[in-house]
Design brief:
The complex is a heterodimer of chains A (about 100) and B (about 500). By secondary structure, chain A is mainly alpha-helical. Chain A has a domain of about 40 residues. The longest helix of chain B has 20 residues. Chain B has three domains: about 290 residues, no CATH class; about 110 residues, no CATH class; about 60 residues, Arc Repressor Mutant, subunit A, CATH 1.10.10.410. Chain B is elongated and about 95 Å long. Classes of the chains: A mainly alpha (about 100), B alpha+beta (about 500). At the A-B interface, helix 1, strand 1, helix 3 and strand 2 of A face strand 3, helix 1, strand 10 and strand 17 of B. Strand 2 of chain A pairs antiparallel with strand 10 of chain B, so a sheet runs across the interface.
Chain lengths: ~100, ~500
């Protein structure tokens, strides 16, 4: 697998990372060399191996259906750059 | 019984088109707390009062799954006759939006908790099976409010993190009517199960609608458009109608349909493209590293299966067998669990068939009129059963019963008491009736002669006079019999 410049720009846009046009070339080169390194793994035959989603041999921890959180509006809104007493306030996003 | 034929097609100049619809229904799980946090899910709280550090995605917070939400998803899966997967995985679905603080939604992609199932619809042209592709658990997003400020959007995260079940149908639906029946059926099943309240006004049930068209007989599907987040059945039907016609027009003009996400504008009654969502399908799903796979013990699934209530399809069958109802009556009476409970209580104490007729007629009309539902009906099941019995036994006529019914609604009184105190008992003494009839015939000699000369529709006039004289209390059947006898003789 190798990435071209367009793909890099697309992924950057999706991730909301601004990429300097001048750096796209070197970024493409760097990323592709990383992919190349990782691709060595493809040499192994994994046909009959289930994908490993976690290295922990434990099952998912669960909790009871109880209300024991929330009611901390002040705390939640504290770091919001723009706010009023009740809401997060963001630039208008409307269809 | 002859059945109506399915006939939802769009006629173009180049041929006849059928509409292919698949739904992604988002049903809010009934639980006290959220899917991965202990915040309350109660509707209508002050903004941002039911938000934890997890729901607002503060760094370093870890999600812990609510076991009840898992059980609710399993129950719903079982209610949809679906396969429950013992192994499922939570994935991150990545996209940016102001009301999604994590920058991703925790959802299930490749391995959902519930696999294929089916739902049965009763259509005028027969029953139709709609396939379920899957059901998975995911988080709801927050709510953006656009109309409180001209230049800003306000965000309320109370809904953020509430558990949703996304129920994906196969593209088996073919008309707005089928969509209506399908949503209602899903809602009924979930309300029976107690897994979703189905309240569309509060957004507990909403759907993305996938629509495509193809010429009748075509094996391949057309290009589909997805209409996002429609929150009423009526709007779904309007959106489908508009969108299908739009697509047919494009095809007729020799144009192509772009696969895209569209929005239904309820004011203009049209769908339009959501350009901002162009990249949205690139969600870059990957397994959430904060959550291990969900492994379900078969015993848990079996136990939940044993504890399921009787579901609408089974109840309908039983109502037909046990109470002698027809399919239509049984359908109506099982549509809400509360209605079926009320009916059963009434049917135990009175005539089963007559009870169904009166419930579906006068009782439903009254409730509808007053904006009430069966749970807060002014007439108790016990009193309603007594009214039905009074009609059945001939104590009061159907006509008088309507008056008694009215008084019951006003006063909440017991029908026996009303009939007694207002002297509304039906006149069923043959001697008394005969006396009255003779009196009337005597007074209308001319009409009796005309009747005997062949003007038979005067019979109704005589009956009417008897009713007048008895202030509506004469037993109509008996009156007919006696009147016939006398007029013959």
């Amino acid at each position: 697998m190798s990435l071209d410049k367009e793909k890099i720009k697309h992924v950057a846009k999706l991730a909301r990372i601004s990429v300097d046009e001048a750096k796209v070339d070197s970024l493409t080169k760097d990323l592709n060399s990383i992919f190349k390194f990782i691709e060595q793994l493809n040499e192994l035959n994994t046909d009959k191996v289930e994908p490993l989603t976690s290295i922990l041999n434990r099952s998912l921890r669960s909790r009871k259906d109880e209300i024991n959180d929330g009611k901390i509006r002040e705390k939640i809104l504290k770091n919001s750059p723009k706010k009023n007493e009740e809401f997060f306030v963001v630039p208008k996003v409307v269809e | 019984m002859s059945k109506e034929k399915f006939d939802y097609f769009i006629n173009g100049e180049k041929g006849k088109y059928e509409v292919v619809i698949g739904l992604e229904v988002h049903a809010q799980v009934l639980s006290n707390s959220k899917l991965f946090s202990g915040s309350s899910t109660k509707f209508g709280a002050d903004p941002n009062k039911q938000v934890s550090l997890i729901d607002s995605a503060f760094p370093g917070m870890l999600p812990v799954i609510n076991e009840e939400c898992v059980k609710q998803a399993i129950r719903t899966g079982l209610g949809l006759n679906a396969k429950i997967n013992n192994y499922s995985v939570f994935d991150r679905k990545n996209y940016f939006y102001a009301d999604l603080p994590q920058g991703y939604q925790i959802s299930q992609y490749k391995n959902p908790i519930v696999g294929e199932g089916k739902v049965l619809l009763d259509m005028p042209y027969g029953s139709k099976e709609i396939g379920i592709e899957r059901l998975h658990l995911e988080q709801d997003a927050g709510k953006s409010i656009h109309d409180m400020d001209p230049s800003n959007t306000y965000v309320d995260l109370n809904r953020s993190g509430i558990a949703l079940m996304e129920i994906v149908s196969k593209p088996h639906l073919r008309s707005p009517d089928e969509v209506n029946a399908y949503i209602k059926k899903l809602r009924t099943i979930m309300r029976y199960l107690g897994t979703c309240d189905g309240n569309m006004q509060e957004g507990s049930l909403r759907a993305d609608v996938n629509v495509s068209v193809r010429k009748v007989g075509d094996k391949n599907f057309g290009t589909r458009c997805e209409i996002k987040n429609v929150n009423s059945i009526k709007f779904m039907q309007m959106a489908i109608e508009y969108e299908a016609n739009r697509q047919v027009e494009l095809l007729e003009d020799g144009k192509e349909i772009d696969q895209e996400t569209r929005l239904f504008d309820t004011k203009k009654n049209e769908t339009r493209s959501m350009r901002s969502k162009e990249d949205a399908h690139d969600y870059r799903y990957f397994p959430d590293p904060d959550l291990l796979p969900l492994k379900l013990e078969q015993k848990l699934i079996d136990d939940l299966k044993k504890s399921l209530p009787e579901l609408p399809d089974n109840k309908k069958e039983r109502f037909i067998k046990e109470y002698g109802l027809n399919s239509y009556e049984a359908n109506v009476l099982v549509s809400e669990k509360e209605i079926s409970d009320y009916y059963e209580e009434v049917a135990k104490l009175s005539d089963k068939k007559l009870a169904a007729t009166w419930m579906m007629g006068d009782l439903f009309a009254m409730l509808n009129d007053k904006g009430l539902n069966i749970s807060n009906s002014p007439i108790s099941a016990k009193n309603f059963a007594e009214l039905v019995q009074s009609i059945k036994s001939g104590e009061i006529s159907g006509r008088i019963a309507k008056d008694v019914f009215e008084i019951m609604v006003e006063s909440g009184d017991n029908p026996k008491k009303i009939i007694e105190s207002k002297g509304m008992k039906q006149q069923s003494d043959p001697k008394e009736l005969e006396k009255m009839i003779n009196e009337i015939l005597l007074k209308n000699k001319d009409k009796v002669d005309q009747y005997k000369a062949g003007k038979e529709k005067l019979f109704g006039f005589f009956v009417g006079e008897v009713m007048k004289l008895s202030s509506g209390k004469a037993n109509p059947q008996l009156t007919n019999e006696i009147l016939k006898k006398i007029l013959k003789g």
